[in-house]
Amino acid sequence: MVRLIAVKGSAVGIRVLLVAAAVAMLVPVVQAQTTAAVGAVNPYPNFFDIAYPGRFSLTLFGGGFGSDQYGTTQEGVQIEQSLTRYVGVVGRATGYQLYMGHGFANPLQPNPGTNSGSARYNFGRFQGGVDLAFTPTTHVYVLGGDDGGNSHNANIEGDISSWLLVHSQHPVNFLVSSVYSWQNDISSSSIDLRVVLASTENYMFMGGAGGVIYGGGFVSGVAGQGGPDLGVYFRPWQIGADVQAGYGTPHGYGELTLYKQFSWTE
Fold first, then answer.
1. For labeling, which of 84, 143, 163, 251 is most exposed (least CB within 10 Å)?
2. Segment 254-265, tens digit of pLDDT
């Protein structure tokens, strides 16, 4: 079971980035609604035209996961540059630290048989890809990359973030992420469904539930965990926090994620 740590550690980082991206999409949603009727005949007008004004965004993120089986911390940065109204390029760098209360076999190695190890492993994940805006409130991210440090693991990732019921007082956000890792032949998928509970000029409060499942490689059957989550976003500072607690393969667990956004028009 401990060899799932690396997969879970990266899943936490992906989840907080999807939350941050989802919040960024909802802020200008009123403007998107007013232009929806114009694009009814041609949903992608001027598809190849360079976006003007362009938009560059930077997101700092970090967090941690803890259970009686293991713990992880992670921190990183994601940048995104718009190319057209519908396509952007994305770059992401994340550092992970994996912890166990005593020595354990390296969870980053796909081949069993070693009893040596330590209570901490460190690795970085570097990815690049594209952001595709299928609608103003539905984005698909496709990224690929590799790891450095205690892990050397090529991977490919696909993420979807979509807002529903945007005309209501309580919009609903649906987040899906899937990652395949070549080193250990494991695929992991996370799903989150959350609703805006309350929104003011400065704050937005969200609540919902989500989880992660794993399969393939050395995983026998299906493993994973899930539970309810709560989030808050402070608009003036573009900063947010998200907490989740639940149960699953690592038994009871809790996780905290923080993110800070910066954006510029060009």
1. 251
2. 999 999 999 898
Residue whose entry in the numeric block shows the structure tokens 């609604």: 33
CA distance linking residue 238 with residue 203, whole number of Å: 10
**pLDDT tens-digit readout, 159-214:** 999 999 988 889 999 999 999 888 777 788 889 999 999 999 999 999 999 998 88
Closest CA to 153 of 107, 218, 188, 108: 108
d(CA 157, CA 197): 30
Phi/psi at 237 (nearest 5 deg)? -100, -5
Please name the amino acid found at residue 118. Answer: S
What is the 3 state secondary structure string of 71-110?
EEEEEEEEEEEECECCEEEEEEEEEEEEECCCCCCCCCCC
DSSP 174-203: EEEEEEEETTTTEEEEEEEEEEEEEE-SSE
Residue appearing with tokens 């550690």: 9
Q: Would you place residue 113 in the very low, low, confident or very high pLDDT band (cuts 50, 70, 90)? A: very low
Q: How many CB atoms lie under 10 A from the CB of residue 95?
A: 17
- DSSP secondary-structure letter at 51? P
Distance CA 217, CA 206 (A): 35
Q: What type of residue sits at position 121?
A: Y
pLDDT category of residue 112 using cuts at 50, 70 and 90: very low
